[in-house]
Specification:
The complex is a heterodimer of chains A (about 230) and B (about 600). Chain A has about 230 residues and is an all-alpha fold. Chain A has a single domain, classed as Phosphate transport system protein phou homolog 2, domain 2 (Methane Monooxygenase Hydroxylase, Chain G, domain 1). Chain B has about 600 residues and is of the alpha+beta class. Chain B has 5 domains: about 160 residues, Beta-Lactamase, CATH 3.30.450; about 35 residues; about 100 residues, PAS domain (Beta-Lactamase, 2-Layer Sandwich); about 50 residues, Signal transduction histidine kinase, dimerisation/phosphotransfer (DHp) domain (Helix Hairpins, Orthogonal Bundle); about 150 residues, Heat Shock Protein 90 (2-Layer Sandwich). Chain B is built from 15 helices and 17 strands. In chain B, α13 runs antiparallel to α15. The two termini of chain B are about 75 Å apart. Classes of the chains: A mainly alpha (about 230), B alpha+beta (about 600). Chains A and B meet through α1 and α4 of A and loops of B. Bound molecules: adenosine-5'-triphosphate and magnesium ion. The site of magnesium ion (MG) has 5 residues of chain B, from α13.
């Protein structure tokens, strides 16, 4: 990257890094809220989401404004397109965090419901992926981004075994079905956050190498995540 | 542009000088050499002519033309000189080389013309007769003052020319040798000049590479030795300065890294210019890698990012709170102050981070404690007050009611008493352990466990709970037996209290490390959810308030256990699985010094 290059896209990058911080903090609070069943923390997540939305819109407008300027060099165009995609992914992660927080509030009503240990594991795996993908973006680190893409499989496995655990428990205690379905939707949101983390990492590789890495995504939710 | 080597610079200039000198020298020398040679030849010719003058004059006067020619031929052969006699009208009357009849008129020849004017002169030119360069000398033949003819002598100048040429060749040859020599000398000189310069250069490169201990060798030439000395002094001064700077830097680093508070310095573009160890630990970043990066690229925390932006924008010191969300929430108190140059121009920002998480937690505990203690005391008092008032209002006359009410009053008074007892014993333990007043002695662990079980046996029997003791009698620990028994009673009675009927409680002790005994109380009771574990040992912390109060709990039992363990320089810990049971572990040192010192 040349000097001029950095300076032109730098403000945009700064805003995006701020969005990263907001989104990561919310995701972390979610995981914390799941672990400690902290309803106050969950409420904080929901309250902070409007800030994420507002920043996302501002960044999108900034990106479009830059792309409309025809004078933008090819290198920058790629960068801005990458920013645009990551921006959208981050916003979706924010939304999913809000969903999770709502789920935690809903589960909070059932004092006796013991959350399966697997959900905490899944949440932590997802969080690690998200953090690593944001790290990769922060440092434009292709290697780091690649490791995140490889982690996606693990989280998928955790999610699948999670579904198994919940199904077994529903069979064992049919009265708990409604509550356990909440748990299931938490898990699903987590798994999708992991997908967006993969998307972000792929975009980091794209920005660095100008190559689109989207290898065989078979799951429907994966495809959906890619499109948004 | 490619730099020329010194040798070539020296050599070309040397060569040019030598070449020019040689050229001028050759030109001058060969000129004057030729002049000398030619004037010799011309003098020679003239004197020969003068010698022959009388003889020839005689022949011409007597008009013996044929004799004259023969004479000239003879003379010419003997003196290897061409002799020609010409009449004033230019007709050749005698010549030693050719037949005078066949020769053209010589009046126009320059030397002849001069001679006709009465001068003696010479001239050099190509002779058609001799087919080579020839020098001529002509003198007038004077007969009583009038010119009656001209006598001309001539010799080829080839010899003289050859001598000059030979000389020129010698000079050129010498010149070539000198040029070669000059090259050699230039090489030597340039070597002599460049070698010390090369050494200086190498030395300077070492300086530049940071090897300031190195000293340049001093060359013999005055200019270069001055240069070397100056450079050596420079290196010394640099070294001094660098060591001062390094020292200041280490001091500063030591100062910063020994600080408990996190310190981060930013420049005006929000880029990190310094971060101390505490700050790096707090923010979980690598201090080496983050320097020069902007705050947004280092910490993903909006609160801190905003604080830095605002602090940089404001002119005065700023203060605020920032929450970090990691495995748990951390609260940081942050101070920002603008760094200013001498001139008052802002050059950056220093941010001091103070982790107030524990402080906040303590504050919360204290606030909760006051609220709890008031609440705990108020409940029995309200109840006592209510029943006493009812009694005063007339219920006292109904004996049956009065007895029932007084029974409740008595029970509530007992509860009040229990709470106050617990609070008092808690503060006693706290005070005496603060003042190191608790007497610790090596005593049998088995005895303590046994005594504690005995106290709880009655309650256990009531619930058909069996208490198993597993402890070798020779295990000892440093303890104050009555206090430790109190703690163990609290733990065992909890185990009994929070288990269903017919379960088991295991009490065991074993030496786990060199200087550490672990006492374990395990039950098969309700268990405790993970979220409660961190606060379990706080005063009045109860999981299920209703159940605990029904069972006569005050919520102070575990707080007392913790304090007693600490007073023993030991520790208490808990693991639990909801629905399966809990295990409380007390670790105590076996003897003084070391071991079990990891007081929470
Ligand atoms: N072995 C145990 N199993 C399950 N829960 C326990 C156990 N020990 C303690 N607890 C929980 O921890 C809380 C605090 O215990 P603590 O001993 O401090 O208070 P308490 O038993 O209510 O009152 P006290 O011991 O002062 O009479 C209890 O309310 C109980 O819910
Ligand atoms: Mg108790």
């Amino acid at each position: 990257m040349t000097e001029r290059h950095i300076s032109e896209t730098q403000p945009l990058r700064k805003s995006l890094l701020r969005l990263c911080a907001l989104v990561e903090e919310n995701a972390r609070r979610c995981v914390l809220a799941i672990r400690t069943r902290d309803r106050e923390g969950a409420q904080r997540v929901i309250d902070a989401d409007h800030e994420i939305d507002a920043l996302e819109i501002a960044i999108e407008e900034h990106c479009e404004e830059m792309l409309q300027r025809n004078t933008l060099p090819a290198e920058d165009v790629r960068l801005v397109i990458g920013f645009l995609r990551i921006n959208a992914d981050l916003e979706r992660v924010g939304d999913l965090s809000t969903n999770i927080a709502r789920g935690v509030l809903a589960i909070g009503q059932y004092e006796q419901l013991v959350l399966p240990a697997e959900i905490v594991e899944l949440a932590e795996g997802t969080l690690t992926m998200l953090t690593k993908s944001l790290d990769a973006f922060m440092h434009m680190d292709t290697e780091g981004a690649r490791t995140v893409c490889q982690m996606d499989g693990e989280v998928d496995d955790m999610y699948r075994s999670m579904i198994g655990v919940v199904r077994d428990r529903i069979m064992a205690e049919p009265a708990m079905t409604e509550r356990l379905l909440h748990v299931l939707s938490l898990a699903r949101a987590m798994e999708r956050i992991a997908d967006y983390a993969t998307n972000i990492s792929e975009n980091v590789v794209y920005m660095n190498e100008g190559r689109i890495v989207r290898h065989g995504r078979m799951h429907s939710h994966g495809a959906e995540a890619t499109d948004s | 542009m490619k730099k020329k080597r010194l040798f070539w610079q020296l050599y070309t200039s040397n060569f040019l000088i030598i070449f020019l000198a040689l050229f001028a020298f050759t030109f001058l020398i060969s000129g004057s050499f030729k002049n000398i040679l030619f004037s010799q030849v011309s003098d020679d010719l003239k004197s020969r002519a003068q010698l022959l003058h009388e003889e020839i004059l005689h022949f011409v006067r007597s008009d013996h033309a044929n004799d004259l020619d023969a004479y000239c031929v003879d003379l010419g052969r003997r003196s290897s000189t061409r002799i020609t006699v010409i009449l004033p009208d230019g007709t050749v009357i005698a010549d030693s080389e050719r037949d005078p009849e066949s020769m053209d008129n010589h009046r126009r020849r320059p030397e002849i013309r001069k001679a006709m004017d009465g001068q003696v002169s010479t001239s050099t030119r190509f002779s058609a007769t001799l087919q080579q360069n020839t020098m001529y000398a002509a003198i007038p033949l004077l007969d009583r003052g009038s010119i009656i003819g001209v006598l001309r002598t001539a010799v080829p100048v080839r010899e003289a020319e050859e001598s000059v040429e030979a000389l020129q060749w010698q000079i050129v040859l010498g010149g070539l040798i000198i040029t070669l020599l000059a090259g050699l000398i230039s090489l030597v000189i340039s070597r002599r000049i460049t070698r010390p310069i090369q050494r200086l250069k190498d030395g300077a490169a070492r300086f530049a590479g940071g090897d300031l201990d190195f000293r340049l060798p001093v060359p013999n030439s005055e200019e270069l030795s001055d240069l070397a000395n100056v450079m050596n002094t420079m290196a010394t001064q640099l070294q001094d300065r660098i060591s001062i700077i390094t020292q200041q830097h280490t001091q500063q680093d030591a100062l910063l890294s020994s600080m408990m508070e996190g310190v981060i310095a930013f420049d005006t573009d929000e880029r990190l210019i310094n971060i101390n160890r505490s700050a790096a630990q707090l923010l979980k970043v690598d201090a080496e890698k983050v320097l020069g990066r902007s705050i947004q690229e280092v910490v993903r925390n909006v609160g801190l990012q905003r604080f830095v932006e605002d602090a940089l924008a404001s002119d005065t010191a700023t203060e605020g709170y920032v929450t970090l969300v990691n495995d748990r929430e951390r609260f940081l108190q942050v101070h920002g102050s603008i760094l200013k140059e001498m001139g008052g121009q802002p050059i950056g920002l220093v941010v001091v981070l103070n982790d107030v998480t524990e402080l906040r937690a303590l504050e919360n505990v204290r606030r909760d404690f006051v609220a709890n203690v008031s609440h705990e005391l108020k409940t029995p008092i309200t109840s006592i007050k209510g029943f006493v008032e009812t009694l005063l209002d007339g219920a006292i006359s109904d004996r049956e009611d009065a007895v029932r009410f007084l029974g409740i009053v008595s029970k509530q008074a007992d509860r009040l008493n229990a709470i106050i007892e617990d609070l008092l014993s808690l503060s006693r333990i706290e005070q005496s352990s603060d003042a190191e007043e608790i007497v610790l002695a090596s005593s049998s662990v088995y005895d303590a466990l046994h005594a504690a079980i005995q106290v709880c046996q009655h309650d256990a029997d009531m619930k058909h709970i069996r208490i198993h003791l597993n402890c070798e009698s020779e295990i000892t620990a440093l303890m104050n037996p009555p206090l430790l028994e109190q703690a163990l009673v609290n733990l065992i009675s909890n185990a009994v209290k929070y288990s269903e009927e017919g379960k088991n409680v295991w009490v065991s002790a074993a030496q786990s490390k060199q200087n550490e005994v672990r006492l374990e109380i395990r039950d098969e009771g309700y268990g405790i959810e993970a979220e409660h574990l961190p606060r379990l040992f706080e005063r009045f912390y109860r999981i299920d308030k209703a159940r605990s109060r029904k069972l006569g709990g005050t919520g102070l039992g575990l707080a007392i256990v913790k304090h007693i363990a600490q007073a023993h320089h030991g520790n208490v810990d808990v693991t639990s699985t909801p629905g399966e049971g809990s295990t409380f572990t007390v670790t105590l040192p076996v003897n003084r010094g070391g071991g079990g010192e990891d007081v929470a």
